[in-house]
Design a protein that fits this description.
Length: about 200
C-alpha cells in the first residue's frame, strides 16, 4: 500500500519538476512575493483535478478525441508567445523587485490558470500518463497512487513558490531582473515552438 503511494509521489514529482512556463511563473511570483498563496493553490488544485480525472478514466476520453489536444496545443502556443512578448518588454524596462507595480489577484490567478490548463502536455502527463499508471495499480491501490501523485504536486509547488522568497534579497537589482525576464521570454518562445511543431 505504501509502495503505491510513494511510487505515485515520485512519478508525480518526476513529471512536474521539469522547468516549464508554469514553474517559471510560480518562481517569479514567489520571488516577487505577490499573491503566491493563490498561485500555489491554483497549481495544486489544477494538478489534483487532472490527476483524479485521469485516475477516474478521463484519460480514455482524451485518447479517443485527440482534436481536444490539438486545440489546446495551438491555444497554448499562442498564449506562450504572448507571455514571451510581455517578458521581453519587462526585460527592456527592468526595475527592482520592490518597485514593480503589483498585479491584481484576479490577473495573477487568470495567468496561473492559463499556464496550467492551456498546456496540452499537462493533460498528457497528468490525465493520460498518471491516470494510466494509477489504473495499472489495480482497483484497490489506484487511488493511493493518485494521492501520492497529488502529494508530489503539493510538495513541489509549495517548495517552489514559498522557497523562492529566500532569493528575493539576491534578486533585488534591475540588471538581474533584465536577465530573468529575458530568460523567461526565451523559454516561452522555445516552449511555444515545441508545442507548435509537436
Amino acid at each position: 500500500m505504501w509502495t503505491a503511494g510513494i511510487t505515485g509521489t515520485l512519478t508525480g514529482l518526476a513529471l512536474i519538476v521539469a522547468i516549464g512556463a508554469q514553474n517559471a511563473f510560480v518562481l517569479r511570483q514567489g520571488i516577487r512575493r505577490e499573491h503566491i498563496g493563490a498561485v500555489v493553490a491554483v497549481c495544486m488544485a489544477g494538478d489534483a483535478l487532472l490527476i483524479v480525472g485521469g485516475t477516474a478514466g478521463i484519460g480514455a476520453v482524451v485518447t479517443h478525441f485527440p482534436e481536444v489536444l490539438e486545440v489546446l496545443r495551438w491555444a497554448g502556443a499562442a498564449y506562450l508567445l504572448w507571455f514571451a512578448v510581455r517578458s521581453f518588454m519587462a526585460a527592456m524596462k527592468p526595475s527592482v523587485l520592490a518597485e514593480q507595480a503589483p498585479r491584481s489577484r484576479n490577473s495573477v490567478v487568470a495567468t496561473t490558470a492559463a499556464l496550467t490548463f492551456l498546456n496540452p502536455h499537462v493533460y498528457l502527463d497528468t490525465v493520460v500518463l498518471l491516470g494510466s499508471l494509477a489504473n495499472q495499480q489495480g482497483t484497490d491501490l489506484r487511488w493511493i497512487f493518485a494521492a501520492g501523485a497529488v502529494t508530489g504536486s503539493v510538495l513541489w509547488f509549495s517548495g517552489l513558490g514559498y522557497g523562492a522568497r529566500a532569493l528575493a534579497g539576491v534578486l533585488s537589482s534591475p540588471r538581474t531582473w533584465r536577465w530573468i525576464d529575458g530568460a523567461i521570454g526565451v523559454l516561452m518562445v522555445v516552449l511555444a515552438i515545441r508545442l507548435a511543431l509537436h
